[in-house]
Specification:
This protein is mainly beta and 64 residues long. It has a domain at 6-45. It contains no helices and four strands. It comes from Anaerofilum hominis.
Length: 64
């Protein structure tokens, strides 16, 4: 079985959902938000204070 491309590293809420998803190939972090699961949702790249994408190091690599 192939490795999952995206993994969920944070989950908050049931109706007002907040999740942080990490791309396992790039390390880029995304925020998934939904105020009501039946009305759709939105996703965006998480940015640091300098406007650069937040990147999680993968396999001990520094990808900053």
């Amino acid at each position: 079985m192939a490795k999952d491309r995206f993994i969920e590293v944070y989950d908050q809420g049931v109706t007002n959902v907040r999740k942080i998803i990490v791309d396992t190939e790039t390390g880029v972090n995304y925020l998934l938000m939904s105020s009501n699961k039946t009305n759709g949702c939105g996703i965006t790249v998480l940015m640091d204070k300098d406007g650069k994408p937040i990147v999680t190091p993968l396999n001990g690599e520094d990808r900053s």
